[in-house]
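Recap quiz, item 2
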Amino acid sequence: MNGATQQLARFVAASRWSDVPRNVQHEAARAIMNWLGCAIGGCRDRTVEVMVAALRDFSGPPQASLLGRGERFDALTAACINGTSSNRLDFDDTHLRTVIHPSVPIASALAALAEYRPLTGAGFLHAFVLGVEVECRVGNAIAPEHYDRGWHITATCGVLGAAAAAAKALELDAHRIASAIGIAATQASGLMEMLGTMCKSYNMGHAARNGLSAAFLAEAGFTSSPRALEAPRGFLNVLAARNDEAEITTDLGSRWELTHNAYKPYPCGIVIHPVIDGCLELRQEQRIDPPAIVAIEVDVNPLAQTLCGRKTPRDSLEGKLSLYHSAAVALLDGEAGVRQYLDERVRASDVAVLREKVVVNTDAAIATDQARIRVALANGASHETFVEHARGSLARPLTDAELEAKFRALAAAELSPPRIDRLAEQCWSLERQADASVIARGSFSG
Amino acid sequence: MNGATQQLARFVAASRWSDVPRNVQHEAARAIMNWLGCAIGGCRDRTVEVMVAALRDFSGPPQASLLGRGERFDALTAACINGTSSNRLDFDDTHLRTVIHPSVPIASALAALAEYRPLTGAGFLHAFVLGVEVECRVGNAIAPEHYDRGWHITATCGVLGAAAAAAKALELDAHRIASAIGIAATQASGLMEMLGTMCKSYNMGHAARNGLSAAFLAEAGFTSSPRALEAPRGFLNVLAARNDEAEITTDLGSRWELTHNAYKPYPCGIVIHPVIDGCLELRQEQRIDPPAIVAIEVDVNPLAQTLCGRKTPRDSLEGKLSLYHSAAVALLDGEAGVRQYLDERVRASDVAVLREKVVVNTDAAIATDQARIRVALANGASHETFVEHARGSLARPLTDAELEAKFRALAAAELSPPRIDRLAEQCWSLERQADASVIARGSFSG
């Protein structure tokens, strides 16, 4: 058999770390640092607290840590909770073509695995790169229909990536890697309807857990269809009527999806980012005094309004999907960080007043990483700016230093400065670490 | 809000056991007995052994028993393994309109719950009836497109039924029951491509586990979309472009889907059953000597050939989906029980020889519970019969005594006759048992 399932499995089995180009290897370290910061920053969210309360009684032995928190659960439960916490702030990475957030399901599965079975830092990064490749290539094959239909593509493809990555980390052969991918394929799930509810990030946690358990089942000899992806009633056809299997197999080993990964400077819907850039720029360069603002006009791509058009968000989850809220806090606070999307800031009266002054216009000629902002002031003055590419877009990526600064700001919620220094250093040097579990074990104090 | 999600949740919350008609109450006891026998009969299958080996290390405290086996795992893991074992023999029940096997996901979730939290026998049966109602009504709303597309409908709808049933057993209010249904909806998964592999029954176990965990998450306050089923990007639209929400809500409380449930007399694909009936009848009434057979001609509905047309099955899993194998063993052995579908019987040379003599013709004028069989003998004689309705069909249901005999045959693999007597009695009297966990605790020896 030579369909996508088997080709992917053979590619994953045969790959050596030295086959991975240096820029892709470095991108893996960047992605892990970004993911880990998000996990630590999100670890005390109410979504996570409720999950821990509900699942604690069913957990097995203390095999793996909750990132940022330190409680130890069985590896599958830890993968599930860490997958949820690392997505919860909506601050994780984005594969722009598919809108997959690649790292969360895969890194969460691997981090739990690394505390349970021996895994080197290079082994972790290598498995991660291959998992992203599986996840995003399958995403390419089913986009855009799959996402448009209402599937939460990070979850449905993430479980495949997590399974492939964990299977590689377990050093399974191609036959068992294919089984792991198949076991994951029949567990692919996740509805976009869950946006704005706790289930949204749980979709990711569920994918991490199921991907990891698929690898353990495959290791034990559990069987699946050898054509799980491409068969007439397999993943591709069932989850997207229009799909292209060749997207999965073309240029395997020469084209790397991780090079198309972007990191968010702001913890909210990515289509909002150029608006925040423009508001921050106007505030700083024009020294705008927020009380003097009488109107804020925002021109964006229609997709931004579709995904993030919530005019009156009621809480953090909805605030992250609101162009209106984001423009208001950027102009009021001069930043758009985790604090600007907490419940209390979303409900603050000064924000509500300014939100009311925001008008959003849509224009298909404006790209999703562009925005035009006009601010009218009480004295009759008006200021305007056009953002050509949002910060964090592929055309204007975050530098290593910016990524580390983001990581440090997120980690500060749980860790002292010396511990943050050490953990940042361990992320950058992960390739040389003998034991990849340093990452999880260094993510909490105590 | 008054969509299907909320209407179902309010119905489940408000229902009292005394609201359930007597015939439906009795059907629940029949379904539980049938399901329990299947779980005990399937509990040593290799699929189950591999699952136990792979998942054992991650299990939490010993909260619930593996049916038939007795090892104790955390309730979620036990639900998963029991959901797999009780489907493994392909001997469980069938809601004919949707081809859902209703009991497996729901009863497996409830049995694990009953060992972990207090639950009376009547509470178990009541939650079961309501879970079946949720599961099969959602199935009605998305059939036939959903199944035709390649979804394993027992898994995708089973997780909803398991969640609703467990939420009722936990005595959650309507709001939290709706959350449980929503949490389950975003975990709905399962591909038909998995037929013939270990993943096929795992789809059911996964549904049982996820439905049960959805109820525990909802109990703890986890949120989901209040329109998880009917929203534009909710379960119905994403999993079936053509769907009918009214199927879910019409006649709630007056029409009961459990009355459309059928029980298999043979552990194989249901469309094969009339062929087995005909072969057994000819063998007995015509005293056919198998070596004298030169040809067996079988006329069936085209669906039977599509689903079960495997001419040369290689193992038990494939044998259960083979008209050819089934006709051969029925004529050779004079029965078609668990033993006739073991690997060794599927691979036996006498069976292979007779299988070669089977010819299948399809005829759309023949219903799926009908078949015509012609057997030609070496002496020139020929015998023919037409089966009007298969045994176990709704037109010719198994009697209580036949169901109990099936249960006894299955349970004999693990239990002594006195224990079987006691367990059968506990099933029939479940409504009056103070503690529903008697079922799981009585299912193994030791």
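Chain B touches chain A through 58 residues (CB under 8 Å).
The radius of gyration of chain B is 21 Å.
End of item.
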